[in-house]
Amino acid sequence: MHVDDVRIVGLVTMGDGHTYSFAISIEPQFHDPVEGRLERLRARFAGFGPRVQEYFAALERDDQIICSAMEWVPVGKVYSGRVVLVGDAAHASSPMLGQGGCMAMEDACVLAEELRSGATLEGALASFAKRRKPRVEWVQQESLAVTQFQALPIGSRTIALRESGDRATRDQQWRHARCSCSAGCPNHQSSFNITSDRTGTRAVPSL
Ligand SMILES: Cc1cc2nc3c(=O)[nH]c(=O)nc-3n(C[C@H](O)[C@H](O)[C@H](O)COP(=O)(O)OP(=O)(O)OC[C@H]3O[C@@H](n4cnc5c(N)ncnc54)[C@H](O)[C@@H]3O)c2cc1C
After folding, report:
1. Is residue 187 pLDDT above 90, yes or no?
2. What residues line ligand 1, using a CB cutoff of 6 Å?
3. Range of the domain at 87
4. CB 153 within 8 A of CB 203
5. What is the rounded CA–CA span in Å between residue 57 and residue 36?
6. What pLDDT, in 10s, does the model give residues 25-52?
7. Ligand 1 centroid vs 88 CA: distance in angstroms?
């Protein structure tokens, strides 16, 4: 992972000589046409180190790059009649936690379980939605918090992480020690919210 004040480049080896990369830039939304995209990408990340430059230099065509805004779908009603939404269609969030694909697969597993065991379709879908809501909302909240961290100026980001990290870990251990329900319960997970005060932006763990 390569990071500066408002940008991130991740390089992920995929085996067999292939590398997948994602690049995130926090700025007002813009449209980037396919033509000339590769050159603009190289220029935008020109200040990054040699590994990133080597990767971008190995790209050959504009259409190797997919560019879009991060979409956000708040969790609402995910089913109606015989139609049910899973994955990003139901609860897309920023990719900062790297959990969106996992959430789609978990949705599929839980939906299959509920359809297999439910007495009625309506009951199965209601139970599916109830089981998934806290989990996907937690992922969305954490993902947003990481995005907000990333948007902080680098000095504030470092201070915020230093101040909140230890406390968040302690809170998580405290909640975990007192909770007897299964993994996936929101009580087992730490959380950051970003708040601002007159002395600057700081991050606090939410309870
Ligand atoms: C940069 C980035 C990095 C990410 N990294 C991770 C990660 O490390 N780990 C992780 O778990 N998740 C990650 N995610 C999130 C993950 O990619 C998504 O959450 C996941 O792909 C959602 O799966 P889905 O099946 O719900 O939707 P999609 O993957 O979007 O699949 C929907 C499919 O439907 C097709 N479609 C759309 N409209 C129609 C139509 N009208 N007719 C027929 N087909 C149609 C689309 O072409 C697409 O193939 C990342 C996302 C991004 C953007």
Report:
1. no
2. 22, 87-89, 95, 98-102, 104
3. 76-151
4. no
5. 14
6. 877 888 899 999 999 999 999 999 999 9
7. 7
